[in-house]
């Protein structure tokens, strides 16, 4: 089996291109997914249009194939080992059409690979992200979304590629797929951790092998919400609908232009995009900040909950929830809000510096002076049990 292009790329180039080595076991799983389509369609063409050094093209590939990449070093490597008329050097997102790769309009096309994905607005900092140079109708801030759109433009019959689960399970991301989601239907999804890719950072997130069929029924977000994903090396399924999140319940964005930007209790909470950013970012702050959410006495308990969630959520499959908004059981939180407030007031260093009148206001609002909530350790135990219950009973087979 050939190696992936990231072997010869510097860290800088890996970040720019979103290119990382694809483990052989994942490559084999992709071929397990597409073998029935190869057998059922004589003359099928398998195409990887972000091939790198050819991790997805094996010596025993029993059908016609094409490979393409923008990196001339990778392409030269491929031309030594593969028939030159099967190898193309091009930006696969510009002037996208089948004839560029000697693929007929009637050929049964199976698109495979591990296309680059790197959100140009995300956490790879310091300007390392490259530009997305592509056809206007394919443009997206994330290269991976552009590649998915390119498969629709090629009119691929089957698509079986690796991509972040977040493309599907965040409604805003899902809607960005546009024509792809309108012409393809997810048939199989296998989730695995980004930890299988060396060099992808300490914050892990879920990736899937997604098998899509071109289908006029298409798919909507409700279809994804109910879809049963498998989890690699786990005897379980994962369904989005089984998890309640803070979306629409706890604000996660700073004040907009023209809104009040000063907290009446001198308390702010650092903005978060999803569970991973919640864990990575700061929590309570005592000064206004351009990334600070305004905390009031009325919503204080919700941010006290988020602070506790950061501390107590421990799970072997924690990475599975990284791209969701933080998990919550709203009914339980409303019943238990006072223990979260107490925990935050007793343990967070920023809150200990609040003016005594502000602390009194919080305590009076939540009736904390009149209740016996036990020791700090007993409060921690109660919180721990509630947070563990967020995922402990979900869809294990």
Descriptive key words:
alpha/beta, three-stranded antiparallel β-sheet, 2 domains, single chain, 15% strand, disordered N terminus, 397 residues, nine-stranded mixed β-sheet, Rossmann fold
Text of the CATH class of the largest domain: Alpha Beta
Task: Return the CATH architecture of the largest domain.
Answer: 3-Layer(aba) Sandwich
Binned, the helix content reads 25-40%
- Name the helix and strand elements from N-terminus to C-terminus, one letter apiece: HHEEHEEHEHHHEEHEEEHEEHHHH
Whole-number tally of structural domains = 2
How large a portion of the residues is in β-strands, by DSSP E?
Answer: 5-15%
Radius of gyration: 24 Å
Separate helix tally: 13
How far is the N terminus from the C terminus?
34 Å
Silhouette? elongated
Can you say what the CATH homologous superfamily of the largest domain is? Vaccinia Virus protein VP39
Mean pLDDT metric? 89
Structural class: alpha/beta
CATH topology descriptor of the largest domain: Rossmann fold
Spatial order of strands in the largest sheet: 3-2-1-4-5-7-6-8-9
Number of strands: 12
Uncertain stretches: 1-20, 120-129
């Amino acid at each position: 089996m050939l190696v992936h292009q990231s072997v010869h790329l510097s860290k800088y180039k890996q970040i720019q291109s979103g290119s990382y080595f694809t483990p052989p076991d994942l490559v084999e799983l992709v071929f397990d997914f597409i073998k029935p389509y190869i057998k059922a369609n004589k003359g099928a063409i398998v195409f990887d249009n972000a091939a790198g050094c050819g991790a997805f093209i094996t010596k025993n590939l029993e059908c016609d194939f094409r490979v393409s990449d923008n990196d001339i070093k990778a392409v030269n490597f491929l031309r030594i080992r593969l028939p030159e008329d099967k190898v193309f050097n091009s930006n696969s997102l510009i002037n996208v059409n089948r004839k560029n790769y000697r693929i007929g309009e009637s050929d049964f096309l199976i698109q495979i690979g591990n296309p680059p994905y790197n959100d140009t607005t995300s956490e790879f900092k310091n300007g390392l992200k490259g530009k997305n140079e592509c056809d206007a109708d394919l443009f997206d801030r994330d290269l991976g979304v552009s590649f998915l759109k390119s498969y629709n433009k090629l009119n691929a019959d089957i698509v079986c590629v690796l991509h972040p689960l977040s493309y599907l399970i965040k409604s805003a991301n899902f809607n960005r797929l546009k024509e792809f989601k309108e012409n393809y239907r997810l048939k199989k999804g296998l989730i695995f951790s980004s930890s299988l890719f060396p060099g992808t950072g300490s914050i892990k997130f879920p990736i899937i092998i997604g098998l899509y069929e071109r289908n006029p029924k298409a798919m909507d977000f409700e279809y994804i919400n109910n879809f049963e994903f498998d989890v690699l090396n786990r005897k379980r399924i994962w369904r989005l609908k089984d998890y309640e999140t803070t979306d629409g319940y706890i604000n996660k964005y700073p004040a907009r232009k023209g809104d009040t930007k000063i907290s009446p209790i001198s308390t702010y909470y650092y903005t978060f995009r999803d569970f991973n950013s919640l864990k990575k970012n700061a929590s309570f702050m005592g000064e206004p900040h351009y990334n600070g959410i305004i905390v009031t006495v009325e919503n204080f308990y919700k941010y006290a909950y988020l602070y506790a969630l950061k501390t107590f959520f421990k799970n072997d499959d924690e990475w599975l929830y990284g791209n969701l908004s933080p998990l919550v059981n709203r009914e339980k939180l409303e019943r238990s809000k006072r223990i979260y407030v107490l925990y935050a007031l007793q343990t967070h260093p920023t809150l200990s510096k609040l003016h005594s009148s502000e602390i009194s206001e919080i305590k009076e609002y939540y009736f904390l002076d009149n209740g016996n909530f036990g020791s700090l350790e007993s409060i921690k135990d109660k919180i721990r049990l509630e947070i563990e219950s967020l995922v402990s009973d979900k869809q294990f087979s």
